[in-house]
């Protein structure tokens, strides 16, 4: 593996050698209102190193708002987001440092359309993180290779398929060497035949131990790849469980009802 991330800690290895280090991110009693509309209601969960948490739920249940609050693209109305146990303050420096550790991949890719694939990757690591040109080039090429997009460094986004654009967006996020990657429906804007290539990149990252939170409608992916699946409905976390449990033996009627739509 060319990743620096720790190998996924298996249960057996955990018993033998794992030193408990506490959650990377802790969401504590998070609430978010837009005016009178309460979109997130008392959301709490922990994200540990190596976790791959998939968030599922109907459109409008608050999934994107939750990711946006975690990444401080939205300001929570109340509650806390802790990063390695420390509450995030609202000053720009702290938030920027946090954002460089917690990357985000969007449904609509958010690539710069006037820039090449390579420059899109460089934008974060060279321009924002201010790493040297040599280092930035090396790391961008490493991750473009990883997602199979190295042959397209000189292409502009309009020359690429949706699946290719999303793989470039993932490489760009990885080049920032984040500790956590957040994905908001990364395959929802793709033609069906391109969903697989993006999911397989994400599956590989999961196997290599990258800590991720993935909002998705791909139920088979959530069941097979997540270490925990969270079902959200109407601004609440209804169920947060290992995927075997949540998909095969859901505790809540609302979870069963939601899952039955995919059968
Ligand atoms: P999901 O991602 O699960 O589809 P969202 O988090 O996008 O859900 O939205 C949850 C609710 O919050 C929706 O009712 C949506 O209309 C509302 N909402 C989201 N963003 C805003 C905003 N910036 N201003 C007002 N309402 C918003
Ligand atoms: Mg959404």
SSE map:
Blueprint lengths: L10 H7 L7 E10 L2 E11 L4 E5 L6 H8 L7 E6 L2 E2 L4 H10 E4 L11 H12 L4 H14 L15 H14 L4 E5 L7 H16 L3 E5 L3 H7 L2 E6 L2 E6 L1 H6 L4 H8 L3
Parallel strand pairs: 3-8, 3-9, 6-7, 7-8
Antiparallel strand pairs: 1-2, 1-4, 4-5, 9-10
Helix pairs in contact: 4-5, 4-6, 5-6, 6-7
The site of magnesium ion has 4 residues, from α2.
- Report the average pLDDT across residues: 91
Bound molecules: adenosine-5'-diphosphate, magnesium ion
Query: Could you give the order of strands across the largest sheet?
Result: 6-7-8-3-9-10
Low-confidence stretches: 1-14
The string of secondary-structure elements, in order, is HEEEHEEHEHHHEHEHEEHH
Shape: globular
Question: Strand share of the residues?
Answer: 15-25%
Indicate the radius of gyration in whole angstroms: 18 Å
Keywords:
single chain; 263 residues; alpha/beta; six-stranded mixed beta sheet; four-stranded antiparallel beta sheet; 10 helices; 10 strands; 23% strand; globular; disordered N terminus; binds magnesium ion
Q: Can you describe what's shown?
A:
The chain is an alpha/beta fold and 263 residues long. It is 39% helix and 23% strand. The strands form 2 sheets. Strands 6-7-8-3-9-10 form a 6-stranded mixed beta sheet, with helices on both faces. Strand 9 and strand 10 form a beta hairpin. Helix 6 runs parallel beside helix 7 (192-207). The longest helix has 16 residues, at 192-207. The two termini are 36 Å apart. Residues 1-14 have low confidence and may be disordered. Residues 34, 37, 39, 57, 59-65 line the site of adenosine-5'-diphosphate.
């Amino acid at each position: 593996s060319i990743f620096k991330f720790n190998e996924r800690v298996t249960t057996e290895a955990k018993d033998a050698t794992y030193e408990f280090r506490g959650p990377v991110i802790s969401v504590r009693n998070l609430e978010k209102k837009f005016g009178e509309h309460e979109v997130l209601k008392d959301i709490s969960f922990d994200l540990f190193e190596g976790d791959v948490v998939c968030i599922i739920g109907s459109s409008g249940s608050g999934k994107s708002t939750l990711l946006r609050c975690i990444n401080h693209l939205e300001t929570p109305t109340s509650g806390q987001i802790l990063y390695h146990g420390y509450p995030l303050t609202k000053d720009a420096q702290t938030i920027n440092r946090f954002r460089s550790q917690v990357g985000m991949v969007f449904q609509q890719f958010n690539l710069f359309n006037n820039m090449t694939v390579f420059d899109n990757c460089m934008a974060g690591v060279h321009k924002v993180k201010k790493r040297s040109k040599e280092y930035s080039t090396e790391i961008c090429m490493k991750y473009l290779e990883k997602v199979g997009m190295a042959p397209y460094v000189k292409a502009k986004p309009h020359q690429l398929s949706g699946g290719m654009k999303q793989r470039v967006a993932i490489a760009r996020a990885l080049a920032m060497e984040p500790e956590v990657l957040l994905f908001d429906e990364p395959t929802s804007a793709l033609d069906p035949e391109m969903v697989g290539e993006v999911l397989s990149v994400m599956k590989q990252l999961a196997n290599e131990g990258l800590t991720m939170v993935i909002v998705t409608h791909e139920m088979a992916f959530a069941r097979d790849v997540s270490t925990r699946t969270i079902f959200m409905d109407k601004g609440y976390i209804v169920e947060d469980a290992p995927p075997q449990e949540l998909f095969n033996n859901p505790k809540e009627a609302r979870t069963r009802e939601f899952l039955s739509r995919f059968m």
